[in-house]
């Protein structure tokens, strides 16, 4: 019997529980590629999975962790062979399929992407699901035809994982970036990533009007709820907002006014089941366009046994930027 160390979410009569324990390799789920996980990360959804605050785990026992970088140990997939460096985000890993906070993972080869050239496994996970989602947001804005000469771009939840990468990517692409944050102390951090202006998130927290003064041409929103409703009401005519998150809430108390009176577009982003060609394009662009110095500045590293201690912290919006989890 071969075992490895893993965080495991179990469900009993008292509800969900989390423990760091030995896991039997024979209990890994079906898949044609087995990976020695070297790095994972902390995402908002991992906080939800570990605390049980939202029912994202839909199979028990579950190893949480929605993304990893690692080295292929064995493969029945034509594209991968032992020794290949790979990256995985999404596909229900850490929710319905045993996940990344473990020394081993077995997944479908079709879910993997090769480690992008120019990135180390640790850098790929410093980007992780959050950074890859920020790139999907930028790609959606590009596809819409949004351009920096049309006006500023707002990023909400700017000090968080998606937000930090979004600020760096938009600034690199030439946008005048307005970073919205609830944390006074993070202004210098956000300016260092490329933000031109800092906006107190309280300005986006009031009851949304159908329309308000036009302030930006584009946006990347990781927060949802009242914040997104205010962002839409303040978006310039024919502007676009890419929405990917719900850190404030799942609701959206808006009206059709921004859409029918200003032609504003709301672009939905789902990173979990993105098809392979778009996934690979996003990773290739990240490897080319994300400033690795800025990536390092937004990254903190923890060891696998310590990640559970951060679950409540990320849900409370107290973690900054990205957190890499060293597994190997
Ligand atoms: N659609 C997808 O495929 C996809 C992929 C990845 C992530 N997401 C979602 O994107 C969101 C962000 O993920 P993340 O990993 O970047 O999380 P994160 O690091 O915790 O960042 C979220 C940020 O939102 C802000 N925030 C938190 N609570 C808030 C509240 N009550 N009101 C207003 N702002 C609040 C905070 O930024 P400030 O302190 O700077 O204000 C916080 O740092 C999550 O909802 C996550 O589930 C979705």
CATH homologous superfamily assignment of the largest domain: Medium-chain alcohol dehydrogenases, catalytic domain
CATH architecture of the largest domain: Alpha-Beta Complex
User: Which blocks of ≥5 consecutive residues have pLDDT under 50?
Assistant: none
Structural class: alpha/beta
Number of strands: 15
Q: What is the class of the largest domain in the CATH system?
A: Alpha Beta
Q: What would your notes on this structure say?
A:
This protein has helices at 44-51, 121-144, 161-172, 187-193, 225-233, 257-262, 276-289, 292-297, 311-315, and strands spanning 3-12, 15-24, 33-42, 67-75, 85-89, 104-107, 113-114, 153-155, 177-181, 197-200, 216-221, 235-243, 265-268, 299-303, 322-326. By secondary structure, it is an alpha/beta fold. It has two domains: 3-115 and 298-326, Quinone Oxidoreductase, Chain A, domain 1; 129-268, NAD(P)-binding Rossmann-like Domain (Rossmann fold), CATH 3.40.50. The strands form three sheets. Strands 3, 4, 5, 6, 7, 14 and 15 form a seven-stranded mixed sheet that branches. The longest helix is centred in the middle third of the chain and has 24 residues, at 121-144. The site of NADP nicotinamide-adenine-dinucleotide phosphate has 32 residues, from helix 1, helix 2 and helix 3. Residues 14-325 form the Enoyl reductase (ER) domain. It comes from Methylobacterium oxalidis. This is Alcohol dehydrogenase.
């Amino acid at each position: 019997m071969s075992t490895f160390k893993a965080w495991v979410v179990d469900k009993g009569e008292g509800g969900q529980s989390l423990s760091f324990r030995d896991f039997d390799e024979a209990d890994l789920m079906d898949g044609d590629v087995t990976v020695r996980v070297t790095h994972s990360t902390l995402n908002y959804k991992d906080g939800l999975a570990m605390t049980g605050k939202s029912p994202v785990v839909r199979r028990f026992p579950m190893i949480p962790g929605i993304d990893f970088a690692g080295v292929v140990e064995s493969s029945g997939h034509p594209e991968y062979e032992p020794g290949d460096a790979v990256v995985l985000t999404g596909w229900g890993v850490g929710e319905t399929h045993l996940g990344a906070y473990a020394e081993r993972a077995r997944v479908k080869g079709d879910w993997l992407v090769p480690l992008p050239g120019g990135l180390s496994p640790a850098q790929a996970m410093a980007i992780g699901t959050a950074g890859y989602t920020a790139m999907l947001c930028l790609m959606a804005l590009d596809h819409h035809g949004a351009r920096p000469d049309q006006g500023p771009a707002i990023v909400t939840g700017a000090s968080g994982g998606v937000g930090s990468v979004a600020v760096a990517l938009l600034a690199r692409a030439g946008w005048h970036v307005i970073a919205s944050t609830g944390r006074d102390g993070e202004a210098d951090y956000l300016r260092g990533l490329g933000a031109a202006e800092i906006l107190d998130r309280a300005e986006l927290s009031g009851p949304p009007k159908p329309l308000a003064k036009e302030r930006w041409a584009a946006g990347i929103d990781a927060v949802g709820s009242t914040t997104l409703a205010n962002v839409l009401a303040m978006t310039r005519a024919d502007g676009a907002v890419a929405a990917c998150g719900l850190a404030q809430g799942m609701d959206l108390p808006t009206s059709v006014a921004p859409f029918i009176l200003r032609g504003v577009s709301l672009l939905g982003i789902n990173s979990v089941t993105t098809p392979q060609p778009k996934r690979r394009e996003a990773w290739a662009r990240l490897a080319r366009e994300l400033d690795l110095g800025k990536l390092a500045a937004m990254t903190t590293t923890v060891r696998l046994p310590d990640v559970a201690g951060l679950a409540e912290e990320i849900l409370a919006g107290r973690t900054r930027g990205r957190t890499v989890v060293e597994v190997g």
